[in-house]
Amino acid sequence: MDKIVFRGAQVLYAGQFIEADVAVANGRIAGIGRHLEGDVLSVEGYLVPGLIDEHIHGIHGCDTMSGAQDVTQMARCVVQHGVTTFLPTTMNAPVEETHAAVQGVKDAMLGAVPGADIAGVHMEGPFLSEKYKGAQDARANQLPSMENFQRLTDGTQEIVRLMTLAPELPGAEAFIRAAAAQGIRISAGHSDASYETMESALDWGLSQITHLFNGMNPLHHRAPGVPCAALTLEGLNVQMISDGIHLHPAAVKLAVRSGAKILLITDAMEAADMPDGEYSLGGQQVFVRNGEARLAQGNLAGSTLTLERAVRNVMRFAGITLSQAVQMATANVADALGLCDRGRIRTGLRADLCLLDRNLKVAKTMVAGKFEFER
């Protein structure tokens, strides 16, 4: 493939925007500098690393739980929103359904899917607290153990990159230690864990918090619980849904000002990129009104957020710069998932790039050196 040179955009490099060319060849970033040689592509706006969504259940009528065909279509859809890497995310479900969903993600990965790269699966459940189940079906809950995990993932364990669980459950310590030793990132979510349990879980191998303030005990000054742990304990990466629905803008500002390492996620369900109406999430009926997704009983049920909107929202809610916001959807997530070959614009890394126009809308998305979306 000939060398492509992006010229004319402000380039996010080492945490700041600079004027530079970016050369791409053989799926990698081949150079960053001035007056680079190659097939020049004149562009305007902001050239940033491809966005990474590690928590997404569905989009545009597709759902991770529905199998490989839907996951494949998700890969095609998310690139329209600047996403170049994502983790299809499961819901609480019986063993057979969970296994089929994880197998579907694996099949999609093996099928050389066009669009965004599928970097593994995020299992949200079934080792969850019934008290803070949110939109999860508590009837499918299990206690954490390697035996239960193996039943859920038989033949597919190698693609499990992230797992959300409640660390206060019996058996959690042994499971977290064993799973972390296998390279699986463990996130606390749908949890009633105490602050002290969270401190211990860090030593066991816990490294993330799932959708801050949602699906967890509240922050109380005498019982600080999971939220306070997220905002004060070093070594935790903190997922945040910046849609103005799951979190009040002031809560977003609090999280950002705490200095926590924020990971922007969508937690999107199949209604994302779709009109208001009735949809499904984990086999449960979801009603979407004005972009807000809820179960019949009123529980929030995922979101209709897209990741480039999350970037714009966190800038507005927390009063931060574009470079800071983009880092929360790129480098921070890559680091949290151990994806060392992406998340930054740096020579030698994958050419996963997103061009934002002056209004911060996605104009082009490149995945491993190939344009997968051009507006």
Unreliable segments (pLDDT under 50, ≥5 consecutive)?
A: none
Mean pLDDT: 97
State the strand order across the main sheet.
Answer: 3-2-7-22-23-24
Gross morphology: globular
* Backbone structural class: alpha/beta
Report the sheet-strand fraction. 25-35%
**End-to-end separation:** 22 Å
| Total helical segments | 10
Q: In this structure, how is the largest beta sheet organized? A: 6 strands, mixed
Q: Could you give the count of β-strands?
A: 24
Features:
24 strands; 375 residues; single chain; six-stranded parallel sheet; alpha/beta
What would you say this structure looks like, in words?
It is a single chain. This protein is an alpha/beta fold and 375 residues long. It is built from 10 helices and 24 strands. β4 and β5 form a beta hairpin. α1 packs across α2, α5 crosses α6 and α7 crosses α8. The longest helix has 16 residues. The protein is globular, with a radius of gyration of 20 Å. The mean pLDDT is 97.
